[in-house]
Amino acid sequence: MIKILIADDHAIVRNGLNNVLKDEPDMQVIGEACDGEETVRQALKLKPDVLLLDILMPQGGGLTALANIIDKLPTAKVLILTISDREDDLFKALRYGAHGYLLKEAGINEVVDAVRRIAAGEVILSSQMVANLVSEFRQKSHNGEELNLSSREMEVLRYVGEGCTNSEISAKLFISESTVRTYLRRLLEKLHLRNRSEAVAYATRHHVSFNHNP
Q1: Which residue has the higher pLDDT, 58 or 162?
Q2: CATH number of the structural domain 2-135
Q3: Average pLDDT, stretch 38-56?
Q4: CA distance 124 to 66
Q5: How does residue 148 score in pLDDT terms, banded at 50, 70 and 90?
Q6: Strand bridging mode 27-33 / 78-82
Q7: The HTH luxR-type domain covers which part of the protein (predicted)?
Q8: Domain locations in the chain?
Q9: pLDDT for 102-128, tens place per residue?
């Protein structure tokens, strides 16, 4: 019997999932939660086999709840069920320890199948999210968008991604601000970015930091 905890801030969603899953002979809904903090409490108390978790919830949100749960229950299996098709949310969910990511437009049979497969140790991703990632990868390849940066340009990109100003980067790298601007201009050209804001977004999306390799 797969024990399931449903976490979503909309009662109609929780009730709908409960009604569907309770009819499955190998599944049992053991609890519900309506916000991030309650999700953590319920997960630690009930220790479900699979946690169905929405991202967009009050009191901390689903991703914060996910990180807290995995920190205390490293073997927990979590299936994200959300309306968010943002790649950043997908990457964060997987990095925080989720075993699956489905959009709420998924069919009931797809959700039920995902619960079983995640309980068995598989990793499940929404077909639409996979299609989006493949499309983006092909577009980047077509455009020749590669990280062809010098070591110094990479350092500047990492500091930009962490929110540092030109002055702060100058002090950290012991170079002048004009030199920082030169490196920034070069990396923007190489990555086909228009401005600093796009460089910050790029660094965030591709996890370019001093803690993550690009």
Answers
A1: 58
A2: 3.40.50.2300
A3: 97
A4: 16
A5: confident
A6: unpaired
A7: 142-207
A8: 2-135, 151-205
A9: 999 999 999 999 999 999 999 898 877
**DSSP 3-state assignment of 125?**
strand
CATH level 3 topology of 151-205: Arc Repressor Mutant, subunit A (1.10.10)
The alpha-helical segments, DSSP class H, found in the chain are 11-21, 36-46, 61-72, 87-96, 108-119, 127-143, 151-161, 166-173, 177-190, 196-205
80 DSSP β-pair partners: 53, 101
Q: Taken in order 21, 4, 41, 80, is the CA torsion positive or negative?
A: negative
For the chain, give the number of residues: 214
**Residue 214: pLDDT band with limits 50, 70, 90:** very low
Long-range contacts of 27-33 (CB under 8 A, 24+ apart): 27/1, 27/2, 27/112, 27/115, 28/1, 28/2, 28/3, 28/4, 29/4, 29/5, 30/3, 30/4, 30/5, 31/5, 31/6, 32/5, 32/6, 32/7, 33/5, 33/6, 33/7
Is pLDDT at 161 greater than 90 in this prediction?
no
> What pLDDT was estimated at residue 149?
81
